[in-house]
Amino acid sequence: MAQTPSGGAGAGTGTATAAGRLMSIGAVLNRLREEFPEITISKIRFLESEGLVEPRRTPSGYRKFTPEDVERLGYVLRMQRDLYLPLKVIREQLDALARGERVELPAPSRPRELLDGALEDSEAESTATAARIGRAELLAAAEVDEGRLAEWESYGLIGPAEDGVYDIEAVQVARLVGDLGRFGLEPRHLRVMKAAADREADLVEQVVAPLRRHRNPQTRNHAEQTARELATLSVRLHAALVQAALRTRLH
To answer: CATH number of 16-98: 3.40.1410.10, 1.10.1660.10, 3.30.450.90, 3.50.50.60?
Structure first.
């Protein structure tokens, strides 16, 4: 059951007690990362620009967030992650809650375990079809229009399967491409990332291919687990290498 925020944006910020509990955007980031590891400062700023949270500003212009702001952000991120709700709907929910109205949450459209990557190997095959969405659902979940999605597809960043539906990962890809676009990075700039991802996937496939061909079903299931573990390590290494390279260039 999703938790609901106890107050609206900027709630309680006029009291001395609230002033003593104000947090910087960096502190908010660290707090949210406990539940949302992929949250970024740019995402928090984007949600602010969309009117979903209204932090206080110091005279020098720095953002200061109350615990209620953090709770509100957590609600927004939870609704996106678990229920794939567009920001417009989430904003309407928050407005209704601020008025004291009861908000009925829709049931998740697919298993929560699947979205978190925590499926047991034995269940992976039986639930694979649930991890797919249609084009209209992708557009709504990623909050993009048809033109932008078509452009991203033309550069190979996103693409449907042969039957015209998308893997669930397409939602995250679309959101990240959109976030990068706000920094001026266009789809043509991101082709190098897609190419690198394809090479990493090829490398993982080479490692697990012998396991996939094994006659023992348990060994074949182990191939899926191994592939996920390798993918996670690959992403972490990629992030560390990028950060190290930037540190060298910026210092």
So the answer is: 1.10.1660.10
